[in-house]
Write a structure and sequence with these properties.
The chain is α/β, with parallel strands linked by helices and 434 residues long. It contains eleven helices and 18 strands. The chain has a six-stranded mixed sheet with strand order 1-11-10-13-8-5, with no helix packed on it. A six-stranded mixed sheet has the order 2-18-17-16-3-15, with helices on both faces.
């Protein structure tokens, strides 16, 4: 049977896209066993100074409170958008664990269709594909791009992709987002090896469509097939549960700057933001800008502010949390790298000259726009912290001194979640007394 596609987005703006191109601080919780001796009193942890303007998160905290009090009927959705720190699902995956453990599990949510880049390892699902090409802004393909800034294009004669949930509860709702066109092809969707459902991509005008398949029973696996010509273009797919809880999505692009937000198709971003109704947007760019010695800081400040404002506007004014750029180091090539901090030694690891300025611009813009800001640099331990993390045993950062290891990302997520929950509890206490 033919499935009915979702509503149209505006088709008026399909345009070609522009090229985008020492110690770490851990959240330690000590558990003390007791015998007959009393447990010594531990002074309460002082409020964190890493999280600025937490009052901006009040609407998000209200969504969490509705889950806490069992008044919510829908999930609270968090979207994290950024560069490779976000594309790697280690930090976002740990945040997902924390939020879903605390407020309920509502599934994995939306992901880019197929395998958008090498070494793609999303948490809670496994993905395989054959016969798909992935189109990025730099490909000049004229394809609409949404929050993932990438689309999957089928390569005739046959293309398939499979998503399988690794969650114990599976999923009871599947969604797929795609492009239609006057001479569109048909693809099929099979859930748990069931009868294939035919989905037509033919419409009078090019548009963005989405279908949702509520399922009578929890499922584990979806297979999507496209045959023949013209190619089928997919923007994303989702596996979720129809229950209150938290959905935490990560939409990351390797090598991206905040300019990526300006390379997304506005109609696609508005469509996706409206359909998903996020409770919080987390924006995490800055590393790649900070490593650009030729970066025009004034232009960057304007671009950062304008692009994040546009993203917030597309999401109907949802609260914004900026993750400030983390620590990062580099050293001259072709010589043995020495310890961090010496500006005189070209072989010493050191922070790029623009990174601190990028971080300060993000902080200043966040304050002006009333966005919350989390100081990732301070959470890591400040200057040269990524070098100390790389030297730790086991390593908390990669030897490139740009990315963290999985344990390092998880430790940072522990700190971030702890800071958010302290402010959430403070918000709840103030709400009870007001």
């Amino acid at each position: 049977m033919d499935a009915e596609p979702g509503r149209d987005a505006s088709p008026a703006a399909w345009i070609s896209l522009v090229v985008v191109a020492g110690c770490v601080v851990f959240l330690l919780q000590a558990c003390f066993g007791t015998t007959e001796a009393p447990v010594p009193l531990v002074p309460p942890e002082p409020p964190s100074t890493r999280l600025s303007s937490p009052q901006a998160l009040a609407p998000f905290f209200a969504s969490l409170a509705a889950l806490d009090t069992k008044q919510a009927r829908q999930p609270a959705r968090i979207l994290q958008i950024g560069d490779s720190h976000t594309a790697n699902d280690a930090l976002s995956g740990r945040m997902r664990e924390h939020f879903q453990s605390r407020f309920g599990e509502a599934g994995r949510g939306w992901l880019p269709a197929g395998i958008p880049f090498k070494y793609y390892r999303p948490h809670l699902v496994s993905v395989t594909e054959i016969g798909w090409q992935h189109v990025k802004p730099s490909d000049h393909a004229g394809v609409a791009l949404g929050l993932d800034a990438i689309a999957a294009v089928s390569q005739p004669p046959d293309a398939e992709m499979i998503i399988e949930s690794t969650e114990a509860g599976g999923f009871d709702r599947f969604g797929v987002e795609f492009l239609t066109q006057p001479n569109g092809a048909t693809f099929t969707v099979s859930v748990d090896d069931g009868i294939p459902i035919r989905v037509s991509t033919v419409t009078a005008v090019t548009a963005i469509k989405r279908i949702d398949l509520p399922l009578e029973h929890p499922a584990r696996r979806v297979e999507l097939r496209a045959t023949g010509r013209p190619p089928v273009v997919l923007l994303g797919w989702a596996v979720e549960r129809q229950a209150p809880g938290v959905i935490y999505e990560n939409h990351g692009t390797i090598g991206a700057t905040v300019g990526l937000l300006g390379q997304m198709t506005p109609e696609a971003v508005s469509f996706e933001s409206s359909e998903r109704s996020p409770a919080l947007l987390i924006v995490a760019f800055g590393t790649n800008e900070g490593f650009d010695d030729d970066l025009d800081l004034n232009r960057y400040a304007s671009r950062f502010e304008e692009n994040v404002k546009a993203l917030q506007h597309a999401a109907n004014g949802v609260p914004i949390l900026i993750l400030g750029a983390p620590d990062g180091n580099r050293a001259a090539r072709g010589c043995p790298h020495t310890s961090c901090g010496s500006t005189a030694d070209k072989c010493a690891w050191h922070e790029p000259i623009k990174l601190a300025a990028v971080r300060e611009i993000q902080r200043r813009v966040a304050a002006r726009q009333h966005w919350a800001y989390w100081d990732w640099f301070a959470a890591m331990g400040g200057a040269c912290s990524i070098d100390r993390m790389a030297q730790a045993d086991p390593p908390q950062a990669m030897q490139d001194h740009v990315h963290l290891s999985t344990p390092g990302y998880r430790a940072m997520a522990d700190l971030l979640f702890g800071d958010l929950m302290r402010e959430y509890e403070r918000w709840k206490a103030q709400s009870r007394t007001s």
